[in-house]
Design a protein that fits this description.
By secondary structure, the chain is of the alpha/beta class. It has 3 domains: about 100 residues, Gyrase A, domain 2 (2-Layer Sandwich), CATH 3.30.1360; about 140 residues, tRNA modification GTPase MnmE domain 2 (Four Helix Bundle (Hemerythrin (Met), subunit A)), CATH 1.20.120.430; about 160 residues, Rossmann fold (3-Layer(aba) Sandwich), CATH 3.40.50. The protein contains 16 helices and 13 strands. The strands form 2 sheets. Strands 3-4-5-6-2-1-7 form a 7-stranded mixed β-sheet. Strands 9-10-8-11-12-13 form a 6-stranded mixed β-sheet, sandwiched between helices. Helix 6 runs antiparallel to helix 15, helix 7 packs antiparallel against helix 14 and helix 14 runs antiparallel to helix 15. The radius of gyration is 29 Å and the shape is flat. About 40% of the residues are buried. The structure holds guanosine-5'-triphosphate (GTP) and magnesium ion. The site of guanosine-5'-triphosphate has 24 residues, from helix 9. Magnesium ion binds next to helix 9.
Length: about 450
């Protein structure tokens, strides 16, 4: 008997519509005390029914819709009901209280999806893609996660898993019948198959380099000496006045961070205090933070004032970021130019862009340069890009095991050694898909979910 859980599934804020979800064996009995319709919900599975929403005292508190999803064809695989009322927090809380009074209990974070996983409606990679879709803030991240929910990624893992199981059974045959001569052609075929599996696992785990860009985003520090227009550049990219801009040097004292979606890439833009030598204690701390932001950044936008020759401060900033992924942004291109572009070309190569934050020109070229730096244009993000560090880790581990099995084969060691490695690789993939994931792994995954999902 599965107990019935209930939760508000929509954001805890005033909105047009609010949704309450229920899942469990008693869902119809409980819903009958919360929702009154002309025909019972049980007679109309998967159809919206209009009716009255009742509070715990049985009084009508709203009118709205409800839908019954019969097991096993629901999201969770169990009996589910969703109630659609007006998005008033008072109404939602009363309805939820009414469901609790009727016998439901509060759902834990991610408990609906956890039930879907336990009922084999989703594997672990699909369940994790659900939270990735909810968390996504670029189109690419959403598209990739949506395809992973459909099982695109899981299917590729399954194909690798099955190939390894086939290999394992062949190796066990050698182990079970040690007197049989191992044919060289057999070894060659197995080695070729292992190579194919290793290449597939490596391709998938390497896709995490692009995947982490769409999931976590790139820390992109805007660095430069005071007054070159760092904050103006940030505001122009964002399209609103996030940072304070004045003609005074040292206006920005602390780092200012804002997320910006540049096509597929999530940029975590960080405006910083102008870097210069100072004895003023507050500014000094700000400069330290700027240097730290530069150190931690995945990309640096080094801003220079194009209307002035490069100063010693500019030179020392160029030194600080030497060897890092960086783009020189020559600002104030609306003014007569005095900057020595050749010095910058020597340091930044083709990664140079002239902009005017005042006239808002040059920013399309800057966007293109940033995109080119990460070289992810053309990746379709259709579910086969690994975005989850747990998945990347497991894929790398599985690939390592297969490499080890291949070495054992190549050096003519007994097949049981290769078999042990392949078994480890299979276990790693089973942990990835959740076929044999530990309770601790499962708990940590569903902890990240919101209540109601
Ligand atoms: N002509 C011109 N002036 C600009 C441009 N961008 C910024 N400015 C001006 O330059 C001054 C400094 O701009 P900020 O954006 O505050 O410069 P900052 O680098 O953030 O300065 P700090 O925070 O002090 O380090 C302001 O008076 C801006 O209006 C530009 O493209 N052209
Ligand atoms: Mg500033």
């Amino acid at each position: 008997m599965t107990d019935t859980i209930a939760a508000i599934a929509t954001a805890p804020a005033r909105s047009a519509i609010g949704i309450i979800r229920l899942d469990g064996d008693n869902v119809l009995d409980i819903a009958a005390k919360v929702f009154r319709s002309r025909k019972p919900l049980s007679e109309n599975p998967c159809l919206m029914c209009f009716g009255e929403m009742l509070d715990a005292a049985g009084d009508v508190i709203d009118r709205g819709l409800a839908v019954y999803f019969r097991a096993p064809g629901s999201y969770t695989g169990g009996n589910m009901i969703e109630l659609y009322c007006h998005g008033s927090l008072a109404v939602l809380k009363e309805l939820l209280a009414s469901a609790f009074a009727a016998g439901a209990r509060p759902a834990k974070p991610g408990e609906f999806t956890r039930r879907a996983f336990l009922n084999n409606r989703l594997d672990l990679t699909q369940a994790e893609a659900v939270i990735d879709l909810i968390d996504s803030d670029t189109k690419a991240a959403a598209k990739n996660a949506a395809a992973q929910i459909q099982g695109v990624f899981g299917a590729r893992i399954l194909a690798v898993h099955d190939a390894l199981v086939d290999l394992l059974s062949e190796f066990y045959a050698y182990v079970d019948y040690p007197d049989d001569e191992i044919e060289e052609t057999g070894i060659n075929t197995q080695t070729a198959e292992l190579d194919r599996v290793i290449s597939e696992l490596s391709k998938l785990s390497d896709s995490y380099n692009s995947g982490r860009l769409i999931r976590e985003g790139v820390k992109c520090a805007i660095i430069g000496r005071p007054n070159v227009g760092k904050s103006s550049v940030l505001n122009t990219i964002l399209g609103f006045e996030r940072s304070i801009v004045t003609e005074l040097e040292g206006t920005t004292r602390d780092t200012v961070e804002e997320v910006y979606s540049l096509g597929e890439i999530k940029l975590r833009l960080i405006d910083t205090a102008g870097i210069r030598h100072t004895d003023e204690p507050v500014e000094k701390l700000g400069v330290k933070r700027s240097e730290a932001a530069a150190r931690e950044a995945g990309l640096i936008l080094a801003v220079f004032d194009g209307s002035r020759p490069l100063s010693d401060e500019d030179q020392s900033i160029i030194e600080i970021i030497s060897g890092r992924k960086a783009i020189a942004v020559i600002n104030k291109s609306d003014l007569t130019q005095a900057v020595d572009i050749r010095v910058l070309e020597r340091k930044f190569g083709a990664n140079i862009c002239r902009v005017s934050a005042l006239d808002k020109t040059g920013f399309d070229a800057l966007s293109d340069l940033i995109r080119d730096t990460f070289n992810i244009s053309g990746i379709p993000f259709c579910g086969e890009t690994v975005t989850n560090p747990r998945h990347a880790h497991s894929l790398r581990r599985a690939a390592e095991m297969c490499v080890s099995a291949r070495k054992a084969l190549a050096s003519g060691l007994t097949p049981d050694l290769a078999a042990a490695d392949i078994e480890d690789a299979i276990n790693e993939l089973n942990e990835l898909t959740g076929k044999s994931a530990s309770e601790e792994v499962i708990r940590r995954i569903f902890e990240r979910f919101c209540v109601g999902k």
